[in-house]
Design goal:
There is one protein chain. By secondary structure, the chain is α+β, with helices and mostly antiparallel strands. The chain is 22% helix and 27% strand. Strands 1-12-13-14-15 form a 5-stranded antiparallel β-sheet. The radius of gyration is 29 Å and the shape is elongated.
């Protein structure tokens, strides 16, 4: 496994082709640019004049004797690049280039997001798909507006990069997303149901109900969650979702298989057990996720039947026998017979899975090649490459080909070449496996080169007699330019992926496990911004109690169950602390010291109080720190204070800037806790390269362990959405190094902390040998305090 930061470096330096010359394919991109009539009308993040430099650095190279397939391969990467869109939430992938009324924030649509992630996982730079996957965990992203196999596609991404940390970090969100599907779409019979239009398949002949698609998607997600949890070491979640996958498999096979038609079909809503009696292409979807047993493979006979789904530019979305096939309706998008690239992509993935798992029993490699060739031929218009919405499966004429449809990103193609035709089968282990789905007596040569796989550059080369590439006869597999396997025919090859030095100390994901719900809040109302002391096996937490506009404290033996609160400091009407909050408490020289935020009339300042017992506090009447530097604007707040025994001084990290949420983190020192000397500029600021913390960084807690100052901090991507990261520095002031797997704590979809995770405070508990991190979580207007834990002292920084 390799961290994403290291992967980005490898992508830039190590994905050198073993055989092909990148500029040999530049002519495709030049022609696509010259023929692009809409280029001047589009607002793209990667413009046409940057298309080839971007693609040259980021995509696998492919060459084959069928130049139309080769052209389609580069065309689809060229169009995919147009849909890579940089947003305030990071890079995402759009479906339409122009804004459409049914899209969500930033013109996002979850309907084809699974295709986007499967396709984009082959880009050399992992940041695009990492950020896109993260995007779908945001509450405003609406991942369930349409059917979407989210967890499965995140897992598919990790199988290519070899980096499991992203999936580990997203695991709580993937679980929460699954549970939300259960609440909204699961019927009493155990199956999932969906409206055909929300399934992305409007005016289908099978209609709405218990469709084979949605239950298959959730089966794929359950399997993926179980695998991710098992690799992370969460045995309970792994077992739960393995059982869930088994249950869904049984339900799909028992309830959605129509024995009269020998096909998976839609079952209408309600208790009815009467099928719609329509074979639709969606009935092949269970094989996309490897769901059905061998006895169901009879269904595949329909794919090649002229009265079933077979068509020169198909497959059709409904069998030709069906009443209503190609019946006109007053709607743009019909799924009653046209060929849809979305469904064709799913079917080809399903065929590839079937061939890899069961061999050529019902369908053959020749069938795969013919289907892929027909799919490539369908992506034409007027003699040049074209992709729109849907087309007539017999004539190849586009049916929905509107201005919005240009370069329509609702399907996949490159992934079908890479995992199907060339046959790279992504795996969680340290092996690269290849099984080309090309018949032995079809092409004499092809090459797929510069494939980024587990941080290495992989090349699959077929040269029947060795005369075309001069690299030897037969099928060869190269890793980082070195041949690692060879055979004379087109069959399976596998070889270990060598571990480089950069892989020997893997960076695990955050590794933090959230407590299921808030540990403080509820009837107390909004509780936030904590400071915790640990003494004699007891935790003492000072926190902000908004309903009282005060600072209060609670105690706990386990960090989860807390006593009733006791108010420590109340607001006063002295002109600077009408509201008091955000404490930092230190025990030093037999006394308790508290620095806190006082707020009045749109300004914030930092106050100071002392106590002999932590209960009765004496305050300094005036602020000890006020905003007087340009960067501090109207507010200084959120102090985090340590006593430095070596220098005999207090060290404070604080936030300054705007009143609602400050902008950056400053630093000051004091001998007595009262009189402070500041640095003139912030010591820690937002990083525009990290989307999740590109807007502001604030409200840190700093602790000192093993020669490092560790800063747990909030990163904002916009004013309303925050996550928690960690950085380290040798001196606590300069040279801050962010954890590569940041953020460590993120909002959970539909959870109590769905909108933001704020103000962390972490303690390493020596008795249990684990980190305990309390933080604020917000859902809507309510903030409560939660807990996350992590076993072991190691936070995951490179050694």
């Amino acid at each position: 496994m390799i961290g994403l930061a290291a992967l980005a470096i490898l992508a830039a330096t190590s994905m050198k082709p073993a055989v092909l010359q990148p500029d040999s394919f530049k002519h495709y991109i030049d022609r696509f640019n010259s023929e692009d009539r809409n280029a001047t009308d589009e607002k793209l993040s990667i413009l046409n004049d940057r298309a080839w430099p971007f693609l040259r650095e980021n995509i696998p190279l492919f060459e084959c004797p069928d130049k139309q397939i080769e052209e389609t391969y580069y065309y689809r990467w060229w169009t995919y690049r147009k849909h890579l869109t940089e947003t305030p939430a990071g890079w995402i992938v759009t479906e339409f280039l122009p804004k459409v009324g049914w899209s969500g924030i930033y013109n996002s649509i979850s309907c084809a997001a699974g295709h986007h992630l499967y396709e984009g996982r082959w880009l050399h730079d992992p940041k695009y798909m990492e950020q896109y996957a993260r995007f779908w965990t945001l509450p405003e992203a609406e991942p369930r507006r349409y059917s979407f196999w989210f967890a499965d596609s995140v897992r598919a991404l990790s199988l290519v990069t070899g980096d499991k940390s992203l999936a580990w970090r997203l695991l709580p969100n993937l679980v929460a997303n699954y549970m939300a599907w259960e609440r909204s779409n699961r019927d009493s019979n155990g199956l999932f149901q969906q409206v055909d239009g929300v399934d992305g398949m409007e005016f289908s002949l099978g209609g709405s109900g218990h469709r084979p698609s949605i239950s298959s998607y959730l089966y794929g997600d359950a399997k993926a969650i179980a695998a991710i949890a098992e690799e992370e070491g969460d045995i309970d979640i792994a077992a739960k979702f393995r059982d869930e996958a088994k249950r869904l498999k049984r339900l799909v096979e028992e309830k959605l298989w129509n024995p009269a038609d020998s096909f998976f079909e839609t079952l209408p809503y309600g208790p009815s057990t009467t099928f719609t009696g329509v074979r639709e292409q969606v009935g092949f979807t269970p094989w996309y996720f490897g769901l059905p047993d061998a006895r169901f493979e009879i269904a595949w006979r329909q794919l090649l039947d002229p009265q079933g789904f077979a068509a020169p530019f198909g497959p059709t979305t409904v069998e030709r026998r069906a009443r209503g096939f190609m019946h006109p309706e007053d709607h743009d998008c019909l799924w009653n017979g046209p060929s849809w690239p979305y469904a064709t992509t799913q079917t080809l993935v399903a065929v590839a899975n079937l061939l890899n798992e069961r061999g050529e029993k019902v369908v053959s490699k020749l069938d795969y090649l013919n289907l892929l060739t027909g799919y490539s031929r369908s992506q034409q218009k007027g003699g040049r490459p074209w992709i729109a919405e849907d087309l007539d499966a017999d004539s190849g004429k586009w049916i929905v080909d509107l201005p919005r449809s240009t370069c329509y990103n609702h399907s996949g193609f490159a992934d079908l070449i890479i995992t199907g035709l060339a046959g790279i089968r992504p795996s969680p282990d340290e092996w690269v496996k290849v099984n080309p789905l090309l018949p032995n007596h079809s092409w004499k040569w092809f090459c797929l080169d510069s494939v980024s796989y587990h941080g290495h550059s992989v090349c699959v080369l077929w040269d029947l007699d060795g005369s075309h590439y001069g690299k030897g006869k037969g099928l060869s597999l190269f890793v980082d330019g070195r041949q690692v396997a060879n055979r004379s025919d087109l069959g399976e090859l596998r070889a270990p992926v060598p571990k480089s030095e950069s892989l020997k100390q893997p960076i695990k994901a955050s590794g933090w496990t959230k407590h299921p719900g808030p540990v403080l809040g509820g009837a107390l109302g909004t509780c936030f911004d904590i400071s915790v002391l640990q003494h004699d096996g007891e935790f003492n937490m000072a926190f902000s109690w908004r309903p009282k506009a005060s600072i209060a404290s609670v105690t706990s033996k386990d960090g989860v169950h807390w006593s009733e609160p006791r108010i420590l400091i109340k607001p006063t009407k002295n002109g600077w602390e009408d509201d008091v909050n955000r404490p930092s408490v230190v025990f030093q020289n037999g006394a308790y010291h508290m620095w806190y935020t006082g707020q009045f009339n749109g300004h914030s300042a930092i106050g100071y109080a002392t106590s002999p017992d932590g209960i009765d506090w004496k305050r300094i009447k005036k602020p000890v720190l006020e905003a007087d530097r340009p960067w501090e604007k109207v507010a200084v707040m959120c102090p985090s204070v340590l006593w430095d025994e070596a220098d005999h001084e207090f060290r404070m990290w604080y936030s300054g800037g705007e009143q609602y949420e400050p902008d950056a983190i400053g630093y000051a020192v004091s001998r007595d806790g009262h009189h402070w000397q500041k640095r003139d500029v912030p010591v820690f600021e937002a990083d525009p390269k990290n989307w999740w913390e590109s807007y502001k960084v604030t409200a840190c807690q700093v602790t000192h362990r093993n020669g490092w100052y560790l800063m747990f901090y909030i990163g904002f991507r916009d004013i309303d959405h925050a996550q928690i990261g960690v950085a380290r520095s040798r001196d606590g002031v300069t040279g801050w190094e962010r954890l590569p797997s940041n953020p460590i704590i993120s909002p959970t979809v539909d959870g109590w902390d769905a909108d933001a995770c704020y103000k962390p405070f972490a303690i390493f508990d020596e008795s249990t040998k684990k980190w305990m991190l309390w933080y604020n979580g917000r859902h809507g207007g309510l903030e409560q305090i939660g807990l996350a834990t992590k076993s072991g002292l190691d936070l995951g920084f490179p050694r």
